[in-house]
Specification:
With 87 residues, this protein is of the alpha+beta class. The protein has a single domain, classed as Arc Repressor Mutant, subunit A (Orthogonal Bundle), CATH 1.10.10. Helix content is 39%, strand content 13%. It is built from 4 helices and 3 strands, in the order αβααββα. It has a 3-stranded antiparallel β-sheet with strand order 1-3-2. The longest helix has 12 residues, at 61-72. The two termini are 24 Å apart.
Length: 87
C-alpha cells in the first residue's frame, strides 16, 4: 500500500501531519486520540503568562500504520471511515 510505505515507523508526527496523511480534519484526529483509537504522547504545556495551557500531541509512525490497518483498510479507503458511526 503506497500510503503505508510513505510513513516512517520511528518518526513522531503532529496532529496536523496525521490529518493530512489520513485525509481527515485535525478535530477528527483529536477525537480518535480522545476515544483511544490512536495512542498519542501528550506533553502538557507550561503556563508562563498565558491563561491557556497548550499541549503538544505527537503520534508515532508505527501507531499511524496500526490505526490505518485496523480501522481504515477494510472499509474501502481512508475517507470512508466515520468514527461516529462505527458498525
Amino acid at each position: 500500500m503506497l500510503l503505508l510505505d510513505s510513513i516512517e515507523q520511528e518518526r513522531w508526527y503532529s496532529v496536523v501531519e496525521v490529518a493530512q496523511i489520513v485525509g481527515w480534519s485535525e478535530d477528527v484526529v483529536r477525537r480518535w486520540i480522545h476515544r483511544g483509537l490512536i495512542e498519542a504522547f501528550i506533553q502538557p504545556g507550561t503556563r508562563n503568562r498565558r491563561r491557556r495551557v497548550y499541549r503538544s500531541v505527537r503520534i508515532q509512525g508505527c501507531e499511524i500504520v496500526r490505526f490505518i490497518r485496523t480501522h481504515l483498510s477494510g472499509i474501502g479507503g481512508v475517507r470512508s471511515f466515520s468514527p461516529r458511526f462505527q458498525r
